[in-house]
Amino acid sequence: MSKLPSTAKGRATRERIVEAAAELVAERGVAATSLDDVRERARVSKSQLYHYFTDRDDLLRAVAGATCDAVLEVQSDALAGFDSLAGIGRYLDATVALQEEREARGGCPIGSLAGQLAERDEGARLVLAGGFGRWEAGLSAGLEAMAERGELRADADPRLLATQILALLQGALLLTQVRRDPSQMRVAADGALALLRAAANRTTTERKS
Predict the structure, then answer these.
(1) What pairs with residue 152 in β-bridges?
(2) Where are the alpha helices (DSSP H) in the chain?
(3) How far apart are the C-alpha atoms of 48 and 5, rounded to whole Å?
C-alpha cells in the first residue's frame, strides 16, 4: 500500500491524482478508467504516478477512501442532528431533497464503487466496508443518545436500528437511480421514520405529535 507523502507539495500531487481518478471513475466506471487516462487528467508523469501508488488497484483503493470521505462530509451536519425524531426527520428529508436535486441520478457513490470493486479487490472492499461502517456509526450514535435519554423503548437496539435504516437508504438509492424516481427515497424515509416511531417510547412519540 502507498504511503502518504511527507511534503505539502507531495500531498497536493497525490490528492490531484486521486481526484482525477475519482472523477474518471464517476464518469466512465472503473473498467473504462486506465492509468494513462488518470495521468492525462491529473497532468502528472508516469514516474510521479508510480511514486505515489504501487499499481492501479492501489490507486482505486485511494479513490474508494476519498469517495467515502466525500459522502460522509456532505452529510456530516445532518448526521450531527440525528439524535431526535425531529432531527432524524430533517436528515431523511435532506436525503430525499438531494435525490430530487440530482434528478435521481448517481445513486450512492459508495454503493456504486462497491458494485464494481468489492468482488475483485479485497483491499477496496474493506475500505468501502469501513465507509459504510462510519455512516452506520453516525446513525447509531444519535440513536444511542436517544436511548440514554429514555426516548427509545428499553428493548430497542440502536445499533440494529442503524443497520436497518442504512439498509433502507441504500436500497432506496439503488431504486431511485434505476427508476429515475426520487419518490423511492421518500418511501424509504417514511419507512425509516415508522421503524423509529415503533421503537420510541410513548412519551417521545406523543411529544413529537
Answers:
(1) 200
(2) 8-28, 35-42, 46-52, 56-74, 76-80, 85-101, 109-117, 122-148, 158-179, 183-199, 202-208
(3) 12
The contacts of residue 185 (CB under 8 Å, 6+ apart) are: 95, 96, 99, 169, 172, 173, 176
Domains of the chain: 8-54 (1.10.10.60), 66-208 (1.10.357.10)
Under 8 Å between Cβ of 174 and 110: no
Q: φ, ψ for residue 197 (rounded to 5)?
A: -65, -35
Question: Are residues 177 and 106 in contact, defined by beta-carbon separation less than 8 angstroms?
Answer: yes
Question: Pseudo-torsion of CA 28, 33, 36, 37, nearest 10°?
Answer: 20
Q: State the Cα–Cα distance between residues 89 and 95, nearest whole angstrom.
A: 10
* 148 burial via Cβ count (<10 Å: 0-12, 13-18, 19+): exposed
d(CA 100, CA 180): 10
Asked if residues 57 and 121 have their Cβ atoms less than 8 Å apart, the reply is yes
Tens of pLDDT, residue by residue over 57-88, are: 999 999 999 999 999 999 999 999 999 999 99
Structure confidence by residue, pLDDT tens digits, 125-141: 999 999 999 999 999 99
